[in-house]
């Protein structure tokens, strides 16, 4: 091969690992309702969706601690954390999916990937008890061979373990499994696992621009991702 020809990171891809919040679904409205229900139960002030969007993506424990820290000192956060987590989980399960919406071309993109012979996994930091019914409610569950939530394994993204586990499940080398997400969590996990990674520009990414993420490309939608993967294989 000529030294001037560089193989695409997407060449040979046979599976995709896709994030949930901020990648397939805009779930901030669900978080907003559940978190403000929790805060009201604790006698604390409600917060805005824009504040929540900056905190989503690193798991429920981090989310709830970050929310409490807006109004409590460190000792107060720890003192009220268990009650807050319990309230949050109850409120979230009560409204899960009722206020969230699919991003454009998600169904079409997943269908195109399946039609192109890719195996699909959903890996999210959302607890599995929230993830499974949400995928079903939104008509996404039938696309995925494997689904892992943030509490399914000992470590969550940005640790590479969830992605490494999917690669093992599929019997594929990490270079054959592309990760698709909206945040640095997804990219860091992918890089550490040895997977190529694509990012979408419309998600949350902790309030930071996706252009600063070390990825193998930004795709407008999952349908665009499917087209890009197909064009390299």
Descriptive notes:
- By secondary structure, the protein is α/β, with parallel strands linked by helices.
- The protein folds into two domains: 15-27 and 101-231, Rossmann fold; 28-95, DNA polymerase, domain 1 (Orthogonal Bundle).
- It contains nine helices and seven strands, in the order ββααααβαβαβαβαβα.
- The strands form two sheets. The chain has a five-stranded parallel sheet, with helices on both faces.
- β4 (119-123), α6 (128-137) and β5 form a beta-alpha-beta unit.
- The longest helix has 22 residues, at 74-95.
- It is elongated and about 55 Å long.
- The chain starts with 14 loop residues before the first strand and ends with a helix.
- The mean pLDDT is 94.
Overall body shape: elongated
Along the chain, the helix and strand elements come as: EEHHHHEHEHEHEHEH
Structural class: alpha/beta
The order of strands across the largest sheet is: 5-4-1-6-7
The total number of structural domains is: 2
What's the name of the CATH homologous superfamily of the largest domain?
HAD superfamily/HAD-like
Radius of gyration, rounded?
18 Å
**Strand fraction band?**
5-15%
Share of residues in helices: 40-55%
CATH architecture name of the largest domain:
3-Layer(aba) Sandwich
* Number of E strands: 7
The CATH class of the largest domain is Alpha Beta
Helix run count = 9
* Unreliable residue stretches: none
What is this structure's SSE topology?
Elements: E1 15-18, E2 25-26, H1 28-41, H2 49-53, H3 60-69, H4 74-95, E3 101-102, H5 106-115, E4 119-123, H6 128-137, E5 146-148, H7 161-170, E6 177-181, H8 184-193, E7 197-199, H9 222-231
Parallel strand pairs: 1-4, 1-6, 4-5, 6-7
Antiparallel strand pairs: 2-3
Helix pairs in contact: 1-4, 3-4, 5-9
């Amino acid at each position: 091969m000529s030294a001037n020809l560089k193989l695409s990171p997407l060449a040979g891809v046979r599976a995709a690992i896709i994030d949930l919040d901020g990648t397939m679904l805009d779930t901030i409205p669900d978080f907003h309702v559940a978190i403000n229900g929790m805060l009201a139960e604790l006698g604390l002030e409600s917060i805005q969706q824009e504040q929540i969007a900056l905190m989503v993506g690193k798991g429920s424990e981090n989310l709830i601690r970050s929310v409490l820290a807006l109004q409590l000192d460190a000792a107060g956060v720890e003192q009220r954390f268990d009650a807050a987590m319990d309230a949050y989980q109850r409120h979230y399960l009560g409204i899960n999916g009722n206020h969230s919406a699919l991003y454009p071309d998600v169904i079409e993109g997943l269908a195109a990937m399946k039609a192109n012979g890719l195996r699909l996994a959903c890996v999210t930091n959302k607890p599995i008890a929230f993830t499974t019914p949400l995928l079903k409610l939104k008509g996404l569950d039938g696309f995925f061979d494997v689904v892992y939530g943030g509490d399914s394994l000992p470590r969550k993204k940005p640790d590479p373990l969830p992605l490494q586990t999917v690669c093992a499940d599929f019997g594929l080398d990490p270079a054959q499994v592309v990760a698709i997400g909206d945040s640095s969590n997804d990219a860091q996990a992918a890089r550490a696992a040895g997977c190529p990674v694509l990012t979408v520009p419309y998600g949350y990414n902790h309030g930071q621009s996706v252009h600063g993420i070390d990825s193998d490309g930004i795709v407008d939608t999952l349908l665009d991702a499917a087209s890009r993967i197909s064009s390299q294989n």
